[in-house]
Amino acid sequence: MKQYILITLFVTLFINLISCTKEPQLTKEQRLRQSITQLEARFEERKLGRIIEYVSENYHDESGRGLRDVKRVIQLQLMRHKTLYVFSTINEINWIDDNNADVQITAAMAGKPIKSASLLTSIRADMIKFNVHFVLEDEIYKVQSATWTWADPSDFL
Question: pTM to 2 decimals?
Answer without folding.
Answer: 0.81
